[in-house]
Amino acid sequence: MLSPHLRLRHLRCFLEVARLGSLSAAAEALHVSQPAASKTIRELEEILGIALFDRSGRRLSLTAAGRVYQTHAGTAILDLERAQRLVRDPPKQRPRVRAGVLPTAATGLVPHAALAFRAAHPEVLIDVMTGPNWLLLSLLREGQLDLVVGRMPQQGNHEGLSFRRLYWEKVVPVVHRGHPLLRPDWDYGELAHYPLMLPPQGALIAAAVGNWLHSVGIDDPQPAYENVSLAFGREVVLQSDTVWFISEGVVRPELESGALAVLPIRNDLLGGPVGISLREGGAPSPEAAGLIAAIDHAAIGLGA
User: Fold this and answer.
1) What's the sign of the alpha-carbon dihedral 118, 120, 122, 123?
2) How many Å apart are CA 202 and CA 199, to the nearest integer?
3) What are the pLDDT digits (tens) for 178-226?
4) CATH code of the domain containing 77
């Protein structure tokens, strides 16, 4: 328990003596007399029950206990000064917009929109959260997010929400540039001979991918991986013959750079709408409305 006899003057005097190594110099810095400074240090050592300074030399030097006390006393004074500043002059709250971003919009659409919005509104903090669809939509309903950008919510998971479509986006099978299946005459049945990376069951595109594989005769696929993360999926595909079924937007930069390639398939229905989900019954804040406008502009031409 903190001693009731301890005062701020004890801490300030101790820290000055420790810093300057001299009672007289510390007294001058604190605008008190040397006897008063000496008395204050004696009181502190009596309160603590231990010597804080070695007085055997010309300069006062800290004992081992004194060095420990200096570290924590200095931190305590800094914390008290900071608390005083925050109470007297509280920082102004910056306006912010809180956006949930699903993987399909996280690599191109939202970063481009965020940069444009930031250029026009540098005072606004853009708070971005990524995660699974169910989590982001739950946070949107609870008011912890202002909007969610990504695939349209599944039936049964859109209560209390509205969805505005931006564009249609395909799901594509992607491979590295030298993959054996990258030839005009490849057959869908050959997919069974290569490791597959499929979306996990909770992902919005999982059902569409499963239905497509069933339509081409692969009724019970046994994936090597379940994943929608760009960082993991890109490295596995680049270093193996894995075929990754993923929303085109997730890998668009890799496709445009030529790092990855799409296996040609004859099914444009393997995909779905990408857009913005909002809470029903309330207008977005001015900051959220500004980011939505930037997203609308960045989406022009996507999914064409």
Assistant:
1) negative
2) 8
3) 999 999 889 999 999 999 999 998 888 898 899 899 888 898 899 999 9
4) 1.10.10.10
